Amino acid sequence: MIKVSVFYASGEGKNFDIGYYCEKHMPMVQRLCGAALKGMAVERGLSGMTAGSAAPFLAMGHLYFDSAEAFQSAFEPHLNEIMGDVPKYTNIQPTIQISEVKI
Amino acid sequence: MIKVSVFYASGEGKNFDIGYYCEKHMPMVQRLCGAALKGMAVERGLSGMTAGSAAPFLAMGHLYFDSAEAFQSAFEPHLNEIMGDVPKYTNIQPTIQISEVKI
Fold this sequence. Notes:
2 copies of one chain form a homodimer.
Chain A: E1 2-9, H1 18-33, E2 39-47, E3 57-65, H2 68-75, H3 79-85, E4 95-101
Antiparallel strand pairs in A: 1-3, 1-4, 2-3
């Protein structure tokens, strides 16, 4: 299983509409990727290690697929539509990582 | 539900023993935190968005608790023991974030 994580880093002037992301963007991604998408997760940053410290990321989104190839096959045909939706919820340029799920 | 994510950033000269982390470190954290720990996850970085590009993080570890307060209560009494184990598997100074689980 692989996990595609999308990180939205916090910073001066950065914004993120978590409502739009959860209610519109992620369901759209789910619909476009179809059965190849095995699961998804979304988190909103609260803090660093200690209460009151700044969270490095305003939000993170995660998509699970059987393999990196399954992700590329399901995602790339819809890349323009998915990326075109990003400015509707954030002005952050996301960082993306593909990881192997170990536990 | 909250998620405590620990990010181990990649970089020149950085190393991470994923075997030790999965087989020794995370089970130790689980034992020390007890029933307050509701779940955990570990990922190993494979790449960025495209195959062959560098992964921003060599590894990530995640711990789930009912609340930030439940995390602090369960984790802080064992902070020294847990942090003292870190040099056994990596030379990376981790970044930590507490997030609210939305999906």
